[in-house]
Design goal:
binds zinc ion; mainly alpha; 12 helices; 281 residues
Length: 281
């Protein structure tokens, strides 16, 4: 446990980059070897768009990283936050702390982004992808990257997270999001087993179905139990899914980098109301 703590406390930047791009490469190979959807979309253009938004996400997090460091030092100095108040040992901090970071730094902001109009206009860029694969994982508008960063910082104060826990959380978060967005056709028994604890591809893909109520389910990133607890957990046959978001189905608008960057600033589009005939359950 001490070694894990020591490693993540001083995790080299090159290792963090290796997790991000190594993870992308590994899941890219796996999903192309055992794909769920065998669509012949232009992978080069699709990957280029998503890598662009991955790099803007990295840039936002890099520029603002000093704020996270300052927050971690502050909670340590003033013994602030849940882990400090309960005097958690490293084992408790790495499990319970990771769960709380996943909730307050990922599930909660993601849920809020779906409910508050101006936040949705930033988050919708993530949902406009009509070919979800592992590169979709970090397809976030720079504005959304800032929103998520601020929630993660708030989570550090609530949780009382030390720097090593923040790095551990960010590493787990990156790997799990690449995994649960991948186009991997995982054996059903394995997906079922893993999703007792973790968000799997069969679970998260449903969140990317083009219409409500499916896009308002399965908000989780690392752990699957937040959706179970808050009643947003759904499992349906993934082969019936259609990716994208109904208000932005124009292919050019949903794939052109400039168009995507403009979306938050061109006005809110009301959600489309459906009757139950379109249900895929
Ligand atoms: Zn979403």
């Amino acid at each position: 446990m001490d070694q894990i703590e020591a490693y993540f406390a001083d995790m080299p930047t090159v290792h963090r980059a290796a997790v991000l791009f190594g993870g992308l490469a590994i899941f890219f190979i796996i999903e192309n070897t055992i794909p769920l959807f065998k669509n012949f979309y232009n992978k080069t253009t699709h990957t280029a768009t998503n890598v662009f938004f991955t790099l803007t996400t990295v840039a936002v997090n890099f520029v603002m990283a000093f704020i996270l460091v300052a927050a971690a030092l502050w909670v340590e100095k003033y013994n602030f936050g849940i882990l400090n108040w309960i005097g958690a040992d490293p084992l408790i901090a790495s499990t319970f702390g990771l769960m709380m970071m996943d909730f307050s730094g990922a599930w909660l902001p993601h849920y809020i982004e779906h409910k508050i109009k101006w936040m949705w206009q930033f988050h919708v860029i993530h949902h406009t992808d009509q070919n979800v694969d592992t590169t979709t994982a970090n397809r976030h508008h720079p504005g959304e990257s800032v929103i998520r960063f601020l929630f993660t910082t708030a989570a550090v104060f609530v949780v009382g997270a030390p720097m090593w826990l923040i790095f551990l959380y960010q590493t787990a978060s990156v790997v799990l999001t690449q995994f649960n967005h991948s186009n991997l056709n995982m054996p059903s028994f394995l997906d079922k087993l893993l999703r007792i604890v973790f968000c799997t591809p069969n679970m998260h893909r449903i969140h990317h179905h083009y219409r409500q109520p499916y896009s308002d389910t399965n908000f989780g990133n690392i752990f699957s139990f937040w959706d179970r607890i808050f009643g947003t957990f759904v499992i349906i046959d993934n082969t019936k899914l259609v990716y994208g978001v109904d208000t932005y189905m124009d292919k050019k608008e949903a794939s052109n980098i400039i168009s995507l960057l403009k979306i938050p600033f061109i006005g809110y589009r009301d959600p489309i109301v459906y009757d139950n005939e379109d249900s895929i359950e």
